[in-house]
């Protein structure tokens, strides 16, 4: 039998593996065990996912806005995750974006390979399977692509509709993300533009990162994306009709099930660093299923890549705290996260003060 390493380097896409008629079990290179005892009971009120009505932030009365901002303190501390509803991005645009991503993943492997590139997160775009075939100890049951859409907008050139849809979708989701950062700034007792300005978000990094998870014959023996935190400030995520995202809450994994037109919003590492650990970059993962293909689109929003991120001095002073994290340039942080030193885990351990 050929060594696993040679076999795995030949994998073009999990889509083609999953479509092979002979597949009845998970190939050994993908073996990953999910422990069902770690899963949360979604009917337990302790695991009721917070919902944030964005229309009350943008056009509610001052009282309604203050109430949401007040709620956000608890949500960001205890969950680091919520579902944003009434956010103003048309459902047709969200669906159009999912369809355009589906169109890309449906191209023949050879055509998708044109979009392969190096392993630098700052590439214009990147298509691949698993996470990083050269580093992965277990292969992931997913194909993906990432496109950088801000501060400069890039696009895939296939399928033909991709560029137009992704430009509008990226612009509209950015408005939602910026509204969230304003509300979070206020929830910290800071000026609404504090995070935007301190993080140079005028030149902030925004990606469009799509994942394709085909049906898996033994979903409990494979993983779409293992537990990790995201490196930016805040990530918005949408999906087709299939669930699969799980967030860690009170020591359990909770499957996120929410309104189809909502954005799943998770706080990410730079938010935890900026708030000196007051707000939480939530641990999350993507599971797979044996019924239908799941597509998710994550839209991470971050500082500009040359910004030095450290706990906000205004907050340290207010809370009388010493900084818990050393300052680091965002680009270096991303490179540290992707170096494989802390394979798909939190990068914080490297920057504790
Ligand atoms: C990610 C991610 C989860 C999902 O792309 O960083 O966490 O549900 N995706 O696909
Ligand atoms: Ni993630």
Automatic annotation (TrEMBL):
<dbReference type="InterPro" id="IPR027443">
    <property type="entry name" value="IPNS-like_sf"/>
</dbReference>
<keyword id="KW-0560">Oxidoreductase</keyword>
<keyword id="KW-0408">Iron</keyword>
<dbReference type="Pfam" id="PF14226">
    <property type="entry name" value="DIOX_N"/>
</dbReference>
<dbReference type="GO" id="GO:0031418">
    <property type="term" value="F:L-ascorbic acid binding"/>
</dbReference>
<dbReference type="Pfam" id="PF03171">
    <property type="entry name" value="2OG-FeII_Oxy"/>
</dbReference>
<keyword id="KW-0847">Vitamin C</keyword>
<dbReference type="InterPro" id="IPR044861">
    <property type="entry name" value="IPNS-like_FE2OG_OXY"/>
</dbReference>
<protein>
    <submittedName>
        <fullName>Flavonol synthase 3-like</fullName>
    </submittedName>
</protein>
<dbReference type="InterPro" id="IPR050295">
    <property type="entry name" value="Plant_2OG-oxidoreductases"/>
</dbReference>
<feature type="domain" description="Fe2OG dioxygenase">
    <location>
        <begin position="203"/>
        <end position="303"/>
    </location>
</feature>
<dbReference type="GO" id="GO:0016491">
    <property type="term" value="F:oxidoreductase activity"/>
</dbReference>
<dbReference type="GO" id="GO:0046872">
    <property type="term" value="F:metal ion binding"/>
</dbReference>
<comment type="similarity">
    <text>Belongs to the iron/ascorbate-dependent oxidoreductase family.</text>
</comment>
<keyword id="KW-0479">Metal-binding</keyword>
<dbReference type="InterPro" id="IPR005123">
    <property type="entry name" value="Oxoglu/Fe-dep_dioxygenase_dom"/>
</dbReference>
<dbReference type="InterPro" id="IPR026992">
    <property type="entry name" value="DIOX_N"/>
</dbReference>
């Amino acid at each position: 039998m050929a060594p696993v390493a040679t076999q795995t380097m030949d994998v073009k896409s999990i889509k083609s593996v999953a479509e092979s008629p002979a597949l009845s079990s998970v190939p050994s290179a993908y073996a990953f065990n999910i422990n069902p005892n770690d899963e949360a009971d979604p009917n337990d009120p302790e695991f009721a996912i917070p919902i944030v009505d964005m229309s009350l932030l943008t056009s509610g009365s001052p009282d309604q806005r203050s109430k949401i901002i007040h709620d956000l303190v608890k949500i960001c501390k205890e969950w680091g995750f919520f579902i944003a509803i009434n956010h103003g991005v048309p459902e047709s645009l969200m669906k159009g974006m999912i369809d355009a991503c589906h169109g890309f993943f449906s191209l023949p492997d050879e055509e998708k390979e044109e979009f392969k590139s190096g392993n630098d997160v700052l590439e214009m775009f990147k298509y691949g399977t698993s996470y990083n075939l050269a580093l992965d100890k277990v292969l992931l049951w997913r194909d993906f692509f990432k496109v950088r859409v801000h501060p400069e907008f890039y696009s895939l050139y296939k399928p033909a509709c991709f560029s137009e849809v992704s430009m509008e979708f990226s612009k509209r989701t950015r408005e939602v993300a910026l509204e969230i950062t304003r509300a979070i700034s206020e929830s910290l007792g800071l000026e609404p533009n504090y995070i935007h300005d301190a993080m140079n978000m005028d030149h902030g990094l925004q990606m469009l990162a799509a994942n394709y998870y085909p049906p898996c014959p033994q979903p409990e023996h494979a993983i779409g994306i293992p537990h990790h935190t995201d490196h930016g400030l805040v990530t918005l995520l949408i999906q087709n009709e299939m669930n699969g995202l799980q967030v860690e809450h009170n020591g359990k994994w909770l499957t996120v099930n929410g309104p189809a037109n909502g954005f799943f919003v998770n706080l990410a590492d730079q938010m935890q660093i900026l708030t000196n650990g007051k707000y939480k970059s939530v641990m999350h993962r993507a599971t797979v299923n044996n019924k239908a293909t799941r597509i998710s689109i994550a839209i991470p929003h971050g500082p500009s890549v040359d910004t030095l991120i450290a706990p906000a001095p205004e907050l340290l002073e207010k809370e009388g705290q010493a900084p818990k994290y050393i300052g680091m340039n965002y680009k270096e942080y991303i490179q540290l996260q992707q170096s494989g030193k802390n394979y798909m885990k939190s990068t914080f351990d490297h920057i504790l003060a």
